[in-house]
User: What shape does this take?
Amino acid sequence: DAGVIQSPRHEVTEMGQEVTLRCKPISGHDYLFWYRQTMMRGLELLIYFNNNVPIDDSGMPEDRFSAKMPNASFSTLKIQPSEPRDSAVYFCASSFTGGLSDTQYFGPGTRLTVL
Amino acid sequence: ELKVEQNPLFLSMQEGKNYTIYCNYSTTSDRLYWYRQDPGKSLESLFVLLSNGAVKQEGRLMASLDTKARLSTLHITAAVHDLSATYFCNLGRDYGGATNKLIFGTGTLLAVQP
Assistant: This one.
Protein backbone atom coordinates (compact mmCIF):
# COMPACT_ATOMS: atom_id res chain seq x y z
CA ASP A 1 0.00 0.00 0.00
CA ALA A 2 1.20 3.51 -0.78
CA GLY A 3 0.30 4.82 2.64
CA VAL A 4 -1.53 8.06 3.29
CA ILE A 5 -1.02 10.49 0.42
CA GLN A 6 -1.15 14.24 0.83
CA SER A 7 -0.90 17.02 -1.70
CA PRO A 8 0.61 19.43 -2.18
CA ARG A 9 3.71 18.79 -0.10
CA HIS A 10 4.51 22.47 0.04
CA GLU A 11 2.27 25.46 -0.45
CA VAL A 12 3.22 29.10 -0.38
CA THR A 13 0.42 31.59 -0.71
CA GLU A 14 -0.43 35.15 0.10
CA MET A 15 -2.70 36.29 2.84
CA GLY A 16 -6.33 36.29 1.78
CA GLN A 17 -5.99 33.50 -0.74
CA GLU A 18 -7.89 30.23 -0.58
CA VAL A 19 -5.86 27.13 0.20
CA THR A 20 -6.98 23.54 -0.33
CA LEU A 21 -5.10 20.62 1.11
CA ARG A 22 -5.84 17.09 -0.07
CA CYS A 23 -5.58 13.69 1.49
CA LYS A 24 -6.04 10.12 0.31
CA PRO A 25 -6.23 7.70 3.24
CA ILE A 26 -5.06 4.11 3.21
CA SER A 27 -7.57 1.93 1.42
CA GLY A 28 -9.93 0.22 3.85
CA HIS A 29 -9.34 2.62 6.69
CA ASP A 30 -12.53 4.00 8.20
CA TYR A 31 -11.16 6.93 10.20
CA LEU A 32 -9.48 10.02 8.85
CA PHE A 33 -7.85 12.75 10.92
CA TRP A 34 -6.53 16.22 10.15
CA TYR A 35 -3.81 17.66 12.41
CA ARG A 36 -1.85 20.88 12.46
CA GLN A 37 1.66 21.11 13.86
CA THR A 38 3.45 24.27 14.90
CA MET A 39 6.36 24.96 17.20
CA MET A 40 4.19 27.03 19.52
CA ARG A 41 1.13 24.80 19.78
CA GLY A 42 2.51 21.38 19.03
CA LEU A 43 0.33 18.80 17.31
CA GLU A 44 -3.36 19.73 17.32
CA LEU A 45 -6.30 17.69 16.13
CA LEU A 46 -8.49 19.78 13.83
CA ILE A 47 -11.23 17.34 12.81
CA TYR A 48 -11.80 13.66 12.27
CA PHE A 49 -14.19 11.56 10.19
CA ASN A 50 -15.61 8.10 10.57
CA ASN A 51 -16.93 6.47 7.41
CA ASN A 52 -16.83 9.87 5.71
CA VAL A 53 -18.92 11.55 8.41
CA PRO A 54 -17.37 14.33 10.53
CA ILE A 55 -17.36 13.21 14.16
CA ASP A 56 -15.59 16.01 15.99
CA ASP A 57 -14.64 19.35 14.51
CA SER A 58 -14.10 21.15 17.80
CA GLY A 59 -10.46 21.65 16.95
CA MET A 60 -11.14 23.67 13.82
CA PRO A 61 -9.81 27.08 14.78
CA GLU A 62 -12.45 29.23 13.15
CA ASP A 63 -14.95 29.50 10.34
CA ARG A 64 -12.19 30.09 7.83
CA PHE A 65 -11.39 26.39 8.08
CA SER A 66 -13.59 23.70 6.55
CA ALA A 67 -13.10 20.03 5.81
CA LYS A 68 -14.96 17.54 3.68
CA MET A 69 -14.79 13.87 2.94
CA PRO A 70 -16.96 13.19 -0.12
CA ASN A 71 -15.94 9.53 -0.29
CA ALA A 72 -13.81 6.95 1.48
CA SER A 73 -10.72 7.73 -0.53
CA PHE A 74 -10.53 11.51 -0.47
CA SER A 75 -10.67 14.41 1.95
CA THR A 76 -9.95 18.12 1.72
CA LEU A 77 -9.09 20.79 4.23
CA LYS A 78 -9.80 24.28 3.02
CA ILE A 79 -8.73 27.61 4.46
CA GLN A 80 -10.48 30.68 3.14
CA PRO A 81 -9.21 33.33 3.52
CA SER A 82 -5.76 32.30 4.66
CA GLU A 83 -3.77 34.28 7.21
CA PRO A 84 -0.07 34.23 8.16
CA ARG A 85 -0.90 32.55 11.49
CA ASP A 86 -2.19 29.56 9.54
CA SER A 87 1.38 28.76 8.52
CA ALA A 88 2.08 25.25 9.81
CA VAL A 89 2.52 21.67 8.74
CA TYR A 90 -0.82 19.96 8.20
CA PHE A 91 -0.94 16.21 8.59
CA CYS A 92 -3.60 13.81 7.51
CA ALA A 93 -3.79 10.40 9.19
CA SER A 94 -6.03 7.37 8.84
CA SER A 95 -6.77 4.34 10.95
CA PHE A 96 -8.71 1.09 10.83
CA THR A 97 -10.89 -0.12 13.70
CA GLY A 98 -11.15 -3.71 12.60
CA GLY A 99 -7.95 -4.85 14.25
CA LEU A 100 -6.74 -4.93 17.83
CA SER A 101 -5.77 -1.30 17.83
CA ASP A 102 -6.43 1.81 15.83
CA THR A 103 -2.94 3.03 15.24
CA GLN A 104 -2.93 6.17 13.16
CA TYR A 105 -0.92 6.19 9.95
CA PHE A 106 0.27 9.64 9.03
CA GLY A 107 0.81 11.17 5.64
CA PRO A 108 3.96 13.12 4.81
CA GLY A 109 2.31 16.43 5.61
CA THR A 110 1.75 19.68 3.75
CA ARG A 111 3.95 22.58 4.76
CA LEU A 112 1.87 25.71 4.38
CA THR A 113 3.39 29.17 4.36
CA VAL A 114 1.09 32.16 4.23
CA LEU A 115 2.89 35.42 3.44
CA GLU B 1 -9.70 19.23 30.56
CA LEU B 2 -7.73 16.27 29.30
CA LYS B 3 -4.00 16.67 29.62
CA VAL B 4 -1.24 14.52 28.21
CA GLU B 5 2.10 15.60 29.59
CA GLN B 6 5.51 14.35 28.67
CA ASN B 7 8.76 14.91 30.44
CA PRO B 8 11.35 15.82 29.81
CA LEU B 9 10.58 18.08 26.88
CA PHE B 10 14.16 17.93 25.74
CA LEU B 11 16.72 15.26 26.44
CA SER B 12 20.34 15.39 25.44
CA MET B 13 22.14 12.18 26.18
CA GLN B 14 25.36 10.50 25.29
CA GLU B 15 25.59 7.37 23.24
CA GLY B 16 25.57 4.28 25.37
CA LYS B 17 23.55 5.79 28.19
CA ASN B 18 20.11 4.81 29.44
CA TYR B 19 17.18 7.09 30.05
CA THR B 20 13.39 7.13 30.42
CA ILE B 21 10.75 9.38 28.95
CA TYR B 22 7.50 9.73 30.88
CA CYS B 23 3.96 10.26 29.65
CA ASN B 24 1.31 11.21 32.21
CA TYR B 25 -2.34 11.63 31.35
CA SER B 26 -5.29 12.96 33.27
CA THR B 27 -8.14 10.62 32.30
CA THR B 28 -8.78 6.90 32.30
CA SER B 29 -7.58 5.00 29.27
CA ASP B 30 -6.88 1.38 28.58
CA ARG B 31 -4.50 2.05 25.73
CA LEU B 32 -1.63 4.28 24.78
CA TYR B 33 0.38 4.84 21.63
CA TRP B 34 3.94 6.00 21.10
CA TYR B 35 5.01 7.70 17.90
CA ARG B 36 8.34 8.88 16.57
CA GLN B 37 8.95 11.93 14.39
CA ASP B 38 12.27 12.56 12.67
CA PRO B 39 13.15 16.19 11.92
CA GLY B 40 11.12 17.49 9.01
CA LYS B 41 9.30 14.19 8.65
CA SER B 42 5.95 12.71 9.54
CA LEU B 43 4.98 10.63 12.55
CA GLU B 44 5.30 6.88 12.58
CA SER B 45 3.93 4.41 15.06
CA LEU B 46 6.35 2.82 17.51
CA PHE B 47 4.30 0.98 20.09
CA VAL B 48 0.71 0.20 20.91
CA LEU B 49 0.01 -0.63 24.56
CA LEU B 50 -3.44 -2.13 24.99
CA SER B 51 -3.74 -3.04 28.65
CA ASN B 52 -2.51 -2.33 32.13
CA GLY B 53 0.95 -3.75 32.58
CA ALA B 54 1.58 -4.04 28.86
CA VAL B 55 5.21 -3.97 27.88
CA LYS B 56 6.55 -3.78 24.34
CA GLN B 57 10.15 -3.79 23.23
CA GLU B 58 11.87 -3.17 19.96
CA GLY B 59 15.58 -2.82 19.74
CA ARG B 60 16.82 -0.33 22.31
CA LEU B 61 13.34 0.99 23.10
CA MET B 62 10.92 -0.44 25.60
CA ALA B 63 7.50 0.98 26.42
CA SER B 64 5.22 0.15 29.34
CA LEU B 65 1.79 1.17 30.54
CA ASP B 66 0.38 1.56 34.05
CA THR B 67 -3.27 2.50 33.63
CA LYS B 68 -3.84 2.86 37.35
CA ALA B 69 -1.10 5.45 37.66
CA ARG B 70 -2.08 6.92 34.28
CA LEU B 71 1.53 6.68 33.25
CA SER B 72 3.49 5.28 30.36
CA THR B 73 7.24 5.13 30.05
CA LEU B 74 9.55 4.85 27.09
CA HIS B 75 12.90 3.49 28.16
CA ILE B 76 16.00 3.90 26.05
CA THR B 77 18.83 1.45 26.54
CA ALA B 78 22.37 2.18 25.38
CA ALA B 79 21.31 5.06 23.17
CA VAL B 80 22.65 5.44 19.66
CA HIS B 81 22.57 8.47 17.39
CA ASP B 82 19.87 6.93 15.18
CA LEU B 83 17.39 7.28 18.05
CA SER B 84 17.57 11.07 17.84
CA ALA B 85 14.00 12.19 17.12
CA THR B 86 10.93 13.59 18.81
CA TYR B 87 8.78 11.06 20.64
CA PHE B 88 5.07 11.55 21.24
CA CYS B 89 2.52 9.67 23.30
CA ASN B 90 -1.20 9.61 22.52
CA LEU B 91 -4.30 7.99 24.01
CA GLY B 92 -6.09 7.29 20.76
CA ARG B 93 -9.84 7.56 20.30
CA ASP B 94 -12.29 7.12 23.16
CA TYR B 95 -14.31 4.00 22.42
CA GLY B 96 -17.89 4.83 23.28
CA GLY B 97 -17.10 7.78 25.48
CA ALA B 98 -17.77 11.43 25.04
CA THR B 99 -14.29 12.64 25.69
CA ASN B 100 -11.99 13.33 22.82
CA LYS B 101 -8.77 11.64 23.77
CA LEU B 102 -6.99 12.34 20.53
CA ILE B 103 -4.53 14.64 22.21
CA PHE B 104 -0.86 14.19 21.66
CA GLY B 105 1.67 14.84 24.36
CA THR B 106 3.99 17.79 24.05
CA GLY B 107 6.68 15.57 22.63
CA THR B 108 10.16 14.81 23.90
CA LEU B 109 13.01 15.88 21.67
CA LEU B 110 15.79 13.38 22.08
CA ALA B 111 19.30 14.27 20.95
CA VAL B 112 21.88 11.54 21.26
CA GLN B 113 25.42 12.88 21.25
CA PRO B 114 28.44 10.82 20.24
In short: The mean pLDDT of chain B is 90. Residues 82 and 112 of chain B are 8 Å apart (CA to CA). The longest strand of chain B covers residues 19-25. Chain B touches chain A through 20 residues (CB under 8 Å).
